[in-house]
Amino acid sequence: MLIGWLGIITGIIVLIIGVGFGILNIKDGEKRVGTICIVIGILLSISISIGSGYWLYGTESGKRAQKDWISETSGGIERVVTVYDINGQVIQTYEGKFDIETNEQNYILFEDENGERHTIYYTTGTIIVDEK
Predict the structure, then answer these.
(1) Transmembrane ranges (predicted)?
(2) pTM
(3) DSSP-derived pairing of the beta strands 101-102 and 90-98
């Protein structure tokens, strides 16, 4: 999500710079160069902003990035975490609004709504995380 917003902000900055250079050139009597700067600034800013906006809202990776951002900044997403043993029997179920951290050491980490931190290692079992 950050990438999409950075692209949109970059588009705005390019627009400001292009129009600024255009105005400066027009004031110096270079109307043709000024007009070209303004047009290029507008076209580049539109292209950058639309491309970034498309990535942010029109692609699945952009949608996942938005969901990650929402989870990170708002205290998580309503989820159900179910922990299974190696035989498929449910060991524990956690429900609530939380953000989950995971890495390649085979664990997930989250704090539940009561502020209790849970670190679950799943080297021999399975964990399923569903969004409500």
Answers:
(1) 6-26, 33-57
(2) 0.57
(3) unpaired
Residue whose tokens read 């989950």:
100
Task: Calculate the alpha carbon distances from 13 to 50, 53, 90, 92, 118 in Å.
Answer: 14, 15, 53, 51, 43
Structure tokens at 13: 């900055």
Distance CA 79, CA 26 (A): 58
How far, in Å, CA of 74 to CA of 4, rounded?
19
51-72 tens-digit pLDDT: 777 777 778 887 888 888 888 8
Strand 90-98 and strand 77-84: the pairing is antiparallel
Contacts for 53 with CB less than 8 Å, ≥ 6 apart: 4, 7, 8
Contact of 23 with 34, CB cutoff 8 Å: yes
